[in-house]
Amino acid sequence: MFGTLFQSSDVVSTSFGVATVATLATAVLALLGLSWVADRWRVPVALSGVALLASGLHYLDAAQIWFSTQQMTSAPRYVGWFVVQPIQVASVFFLARIAGPVPVGVFWRTVAAAILMVLCRYLGDAGIFNPTLGVLLSIAFWLYILGELYFGPMSEAVRKSSRPIRLGYFWIRLILTIGWAIYPILFFVDVVIGAGHARSVIVLYTLADLVNLITVSMIVLAAAGKERF
Amino acid sequence: MFGTLFQSSDVVSTSFGVATVATLATAVLALLGLSWVADRWRVPVALSGVALLASGLHYLDAAQIWFSTQQMTSAPRYVGWFVVQPIQVASVFFLARIAGPVPVGVFWRTVAAAILMVLCRYLGDAGIFNPTLGVLLSIAFWLYILGELYFGPMSEAVRKSSRPIRLGYFWIRLILTIGWAIYPILFFVDVVIGAGHARSVIVLYTLADLVNLITVSMIVLAAAGKERF
Amino acid sequence: MFGTLFQSSDVVSTSFGVATVATLATAVLALLGLSWVADRWRVPVALSGVALLASGLHYLDAAQIWFSTQQMTSAPRYVGWFVVQPIQVASVFFLARIAGPVPVGVFWRTVAAAILMVLCRYLGDAGIFNPTLGVLLSIAFWLYILGELYFGPMSEAVRKSSRPIRLGYFWIRLILTIGWAIYPILFFVDVVIGAGHARSVIVLYTLADLVNLITVSMIVLAAAGKERF
Amino acid sequence: MFGTLFQSSDVVSTSFGVATVATLATAVLALLGLSWVADRWRVPVALSGVALLASGLHYLDAAQIWFSTQQMTSAPRYVGWFVVQPIQVASVFFLARIAGPVPVGVFWRTVAAAILMVLCRYLGDAGIFNPTLGVLLSIAFWLYILGELYFGPMSEAVRKSSRPIRLGYFWIRLILTIGWAIYPILFFVDVVIGAGHARSVIVLYTLADLVNLITVSMIVLAAAGKERF
Amino acid sequence: MFGTLFQSSDVVSTSFGVATVATLATAVLALLGLSWVADRWRVPVALSGVALLASGLHYLDAAQIWFSTQQMTSAPRYVGWFVVQPIQVASVFFLARIAGPVPVGVFWRTVAAAILMVLCRYLGDAGIFNPTLGVLLSIAFWLYILGELYFGPMSEAVRKSSRPIRLGYFWIRLILTIGWAIYPILFFVDVVIGAGHARSVIVLYTLADLVNLITVSMIVLAAAGKERF
Question: Which chain C positions have a beta carbon within 8 Å of B72's beta carbon?
Fold first, then answer.
């Protein structure tokens, strides 16, 4: 895939390599999972698998850029986030929909908020907006999604449902709260303070992506499996 | 996939990257959807998924051209349109066929009109026709398809059917009316006025493609899902 | 896939691009179709899908050769024909077998004739045979296949069967009669007369391949679908 | 895939191109076949499909080497044989297992013999062994496999079974007897006599591989199909 | 895939080629196996197939590095191990879970131990830790996993279960005991003693990976098959 020699001491290269293979492998696992989960679990499992696949494609690209140039900008990351983060939010909506009826408006509002959350960060990064304004608006949209997750109709539908759904929803919400907090923090360090896309920022972003994406997908898959086996 | 470094401020590169990952990801989603929709929904869902896949292949190619040369012509877009737009028209026909019997002649007429619509635009762009004549003929074929969609037997079959089909048909017809209007408009700017394939034209074409393709597919998938869940 | 910039006025490049995307897209469609056709239709549908896939791989290769060298010989076309044309003949046999019992000897005879038909043309083109002798022998094998299709046991089995099979068989036989006639004609122009593999020959071969392959596959798929929906 | 222009008169290039497309196309066909054969036929069909797929990957590689360097050694062939020939022997075992109980020890012995058969040839070719000794040992292991096929418990289990299995087993055994005889013969010409990996040796190896692999897989698939349709 | 000419006497190149084709072929086999194993066997079979697939991607990359540079470091191996070894441990857990209830805590502890086992080896190799300390810690985590396998609740659940599960568990545990012992041994030779990533180390690592991965997956698949056929 990359065809470039690197040393173990080159932590960034190793982390990009691991991220590519790990996201693609778990994407395959989630898509295979589709064949054994119950019918009503298929939509959230498929969405979380597609999010992993899109992220895997993005890391394949990011790793190739890094291996051939030993440089990285934040631009390829936005290619991933624009697709992955709205899909992840949609996957939580469909998880909650299994538990009980949730108005379809919630879906449109949260997915739109996720797209706007990435867009504001992107416009700030691209210099079209003021970066600080961009990240603050982005945080606002993120808080809106969290508000829907904690106090909206999804939360209510889940509360009355079976234990696997309740547990899965609880953990995914936690990851969207704590795990996603690293994105605005790193944005501040990278763009607002101006540290640039340094090696430590790259590794932290990659680790955050890996943990957030893989755990969310595996939680959805595990919750779906618990109902069956 | 592309292996080329670019900055966030490079909006064209970002939009090509997002278009590639987004179309491929939603193509996978639509094809996965085939395994959970009802039998009679399979043909329109498969067609909209294949349209997305063809578009994803085309954007993969367009993005690679852009990343390696920082230039773009309209030629690769026709490679996509020749395949995608007839498939999309066919997918609407099969959506209407679920609602009730539609004469098979409508299928041949609308698909032929879609191929001719792209062909006339292409011949104008390639300088084989007069560009203005090409785009006017193209608009005529587009209006013919719209006529079939609004007043033809498809519209009648849908009118008496279930709500998800009616709603899905309504929204897709709207996208084929408003969303497809951008193609002749941009053709005028690009070829007839002669602004060339400028950066803003590229981004607008890409956004139009993304919104038109992804929403049509997701509407078909959602309509198919509503009957089931 | 190709990563090479070209203009709309470059008709050969556009036709290779369209051929690649169109064959791969319809191959996916035919293979997806396998999941919804009735059991006894699976073999002909699978064969026509695999023929499209092999043709798509061949066009991917032919297009890459063209985009990087702006030249083409007939050699890559034989790579496609050696695989595609015997598979298409086999697909017609299995279509007829749905209608009623056809002796298995017909299968071996027609597939062998299809391989020999391509082989004779190839040996003539490669200069191992006299080209005129090669194409005449090739025509003889083609006429043998047509004889089997019009007067052999396949034709008889089909005559007594359901309308979709009769119609499908009729159209495919017509394409194998009229559509395949272009191959010896272009061979005469290209090799015997010695016009070489000119641009117009390339575009005509590509259009013939596209129409022949895609219509045959779609007819098989449509006939299979008519029995079901 | 290869992106290199070649002439029809270049028989080696054409044969590599045909081998790649033909093995990949029949691999897809065999894997699709999995969805319509009866349950107990799935293991031999899957194994023969995977053998074709591994061979296809190997030919894709061999063809790329040939197209870019116009040279070939026997080394890439061993990459294919190490994987393909043990899988083919395993596929015959599972074919016989459908007919009746065969002790699992036969499986381990024949697969080990197939690996050793390739290994001895490889060690002779690589100069680690005396080449003549290598090929003689390789022939010994091949004769052992044939012994198992003609006089072992597999043969006995098949004798009492249905006609499709008996016929399939008969033909595959014949191919493993006659078709596989070409490998030690060509090894003698290539390594022991020292003719080198000449053009005619390459074409003969490729034709042998094509006929052996594709017919074995198609026989397994046909035998599986005859029980069903 | 690699497109590089090499001689049979080049054992490293041949071993990388064989490793790539063999892991990808058996990965396809394991994933196909999913369609015929019983429902409750799907998770361990899928996990062992995904481990093979991840390993195949890693070898594709390692082989390309080797073919283009004729050099290898241990870094690309860690890319494989970070993904493959935790997945293999998870696959053993789910195998034991079929036999009877195993507390989910065992899963988290053994998977975490597998990740830490690779991480300690990696940190030692990268020079962030003292290499000797790294490998000793790695051995400690490996012994912990073995302890769970021999004396933990998994072992107990398996003891009371059917023969295929007992046999499969026994063999996989043996491979994780003997086969995995080669990793710290080679680490000592490679890093602590400082022999470097020599040709013999590369071939031994590759053979160990091949045998460990393929046998574990085939054992899981065979155990799953024995319950069915």
Answer: 5
Asked if B23 and B15 count as a contact pair (C-beta separation under 8 A), the reply is no
Residue C150, pLDDT score: 96
Q: Which residues of C86-95 are buried (b: 16+ CB within 10 A; e: fewer)?
A: bbbbbbbbbb
pTM (predicted TM-score): 0.94
Q: Does the pLDDT at position E223 exceed 80?
A: yes
Please tell me the distance from the alpha carbon of residue A51 to that of residue A62, in angstroms, as a whole number: 16
How many helices (H) and strands (E) in chain A? Answer: 9, 0
For C104, residues 6+ apart whose C-beta sits below 8 A from its C-beta are none
Place of tokens 């690309």: E76
Give the tens place of pLDDT for each residue, A79-122: 999 999 999 999 999 999 998 899 989 999 999 999 999 999 99
CA pair distance A206, A79, nearest whole angstrom: 14
pLDDT of residue D228: 59
Could you tell me what percent of chain B has a pLDDT over 70? 99
Half-sphere exposure at residue A81, Cβ-oriented, CA atoms within 13 angstroms: 24
Residue of chain D with shortest Cα separation from E37:
D39
What φ, ψ does residue C44 adopt, rounded to 5°?
-60, -35
Helix H or strand E segment including A178: helix A163-178
ipTM of the complex model: 0.93
pLDDT for the residue B8: 87
d(CA B117, CA B136): 10
The whole-number average pLDDT for the span E91-120 is 94
Contacts within 8 Å (CB) and 24+ apart, E156-164:
E157/E96, E157/E97, E157/E99, E157/E100, E157/E101, E157/E102, E158/E95, E158/E96, E158/E99, E158/E100, E160/E99, E160/E100, E161/E98, E161/E99, E161/E100, E162/E99, E162/E227, E164/E222, E164/E223, E164/E224, E164/E226, E164/E227
Is pLDDT at E22 greater than 90 in this prediction? Answer: yes
Task: Judge contact between A55 and E68, C-beta under 8 A.
Answer: no
Nearest Cα of chain A lies from the Cα of E160 at a distance, in angstroms, of 19
What number of C-beta contacts closer than 8 Å exist between B and C? 91
Here the tokens at position A167 are 């547990």
- How far does C150 lie from chain D, in Å, by closest CA? 25
Q: What is the pLDDT of residue B197?
A: 76
Q: Distance of CA C106 to CAs B36, B189, C160, E24, Å?
A: 40, 59, 18, 38
How would you class A215 by CB atoms within 10 Å of its CB: exposed for 0-12, middle for 13-18, buried for 19 or more? middle
Question: How confident is the model at residue B228, as a pLDDT?
Answer: 59
Which of D57, D73, D126 shows the shortest C-beta gap to E24? D57
**Cα dihedral sign, C39-C40-C43-C46:** negative
A 10 A CB-CB count for E118 gives 23
Tokens of D107: 């499986």
Beta carbons of D24 and C54 less than 8 Å apart:
yes
Q: Cα–Cα distances in Å, from C162 out to C94, C153, C223, C226?
A: 15, 16, 10, 10
Which residue of chain D has the CA closest to E38? Answer: D39
Which residues in chain C land under pLDDT 70?
A: 228-229
CATH 1.20.1070.10 fits C11-228, yes or no: yes
C93, two tokens:
């046999």
pLDDT of res. E120: 95
* Sequence-distant (≥ 6) Cβ neighbours of residue B152 within 8 angstroms: B106
pLDDT of D59-104, one tens digit each?
A: 999 999 999 888 888 899 999 999 999 999 999 999 999 988 999 8
Q: What is the residue extent of each domain of chain B?
A: 11-228
Cβ distance A36 to E39 less than 8 Å, yes or no, reads yes
pLDDT at D157 over 80: yes
